[in-house]
Amino acid sequence: MLSRTAESLYWLARYVERAEYLARTIDATLRATALPDAYTGKSNEWESALLTAGIEDTFHQFHDEANERTVVDFLAFSADNPSSIRNCIENARLNSRSVRTALTSEMWDTINSAWIELHASWPRGATTRDDLTKFLRFVQETSLRFDGSAYRTMLRNDAYWFSRLGLHVERADNTARILDVKYHVLLPEEEHVGGPLDYYQWTSILRSVSALTAYHWVYRETLKPWLIADLLILNESLPRSLASCYGNLVRNLDQIGVAYGRQGPAQRHARGVRNRLEHSNMDDLFQRGLHEFIQEFIADNARLSDTISKQYLI
């Protein structure tokens, strides 16, 4: 496979995953801001949404205040934000066009139809709360259709494996960032630093990664911070956990290594991160510092993306 084809497949999956994550972030923030201050505290949830997306500095180049109107527009529709949902869908279609013959018809139809609907139904953004709700649902459904089409219709070959690499690198980064922004909420009660632990903040964390129902299925307990952290970091049965993402990254990199007849630094790096996750437990992570662990993971994940690019995509 040509490196530029592999690169387009890799970034196509990343853009689709990123669009869904931003839609979930906006939805969770809207839910949080609808609650009374007594439940949510005095923190600015819209600033938190920007931090989660990793674009706070870019946002403040264009806006002075983070509120619902400015943040929703910047995260969802702004042409000035390279990672806005609109730009993610635009870039996903651009990449899918360049590798049209490597995609199945179902995958192409999903991306192309989403691009057409985006321009037909939301040419100037969402004008009402109901319109925004429809838009967020449309983005999430597009991502689910694309991911389902890839899983059910693609041959298990290098095109599929490079697509999965993009998805899981992006997913791991997204989960780690929501944990990094909310880490103070997840500290054990005797070590909390951000005010009283709050049920609704914990719920917003799980909603952001679509894991609220999974939490109750796995633990069958009320929401507890150390169990939430365990689910999102170490529980490989949750598709969006860090452990699950790296299990999938190692498997897909190994498949590529077998197909191409050699291993490389990307395989070694991914295995190193997975092994650290496998040999970790929540007591150790809290004692060493959850924030420091997450920061290290985000840096390691970025290094893996760079290593994949140098090894295969350039």
Notes on the structure:
The chain has 16 helices and no strands. The protein is 73% helix and 0% strand. The longest helix has 31 residues, at 3-33. It folds into two domains: 1-154, no CATH class; 156-314, no CATH class. It has 314 residues and is mainly α. The chain has helices spanning 3-33, 37-40, 45-53, 56-60, 68-76, 85-98, 105-121, 129-153, 158-181, 199-208, 212-219, 225-233, 242-260, 265-278, 282-288, 290-313.
SSE topology sketch:
Elements (H helix, E strand, L loop, with lengths): L2 H31 L3 H4 L4 H9 L2 H5 L7 H9 L8 H14 L6 H17 L7 H25 L4 H24 L17 H10 L3 H8 L5 H9 L8 H19 L4 H14 L3 H7 L1 H24 L1
Essential attributes:
single chain, 314 residues, mainly alpha, 2 domains, 73% helix
How many domain modules?
Answer: 2
Largest sheet, in brief, is:
none
Helix and strand pattern:
HHHHHHHHHHHHHHHH
- Uncertain spans, ≥5 residues at pLDDT below 50? 191-197
N-to-C CA distance: 12 Å
Q: Count all strands and give the number.
A: 0
Binned strand content: under 5%
What's the overall geometry? globular
Query: Helical region count?
Result: 16
Mean pLDDT: 90
Decide which structural class fits the backbone.
Answer: mainly alpha
The residue fraction in helices comes out at: over 70%
Radius of gyration: 19 Å
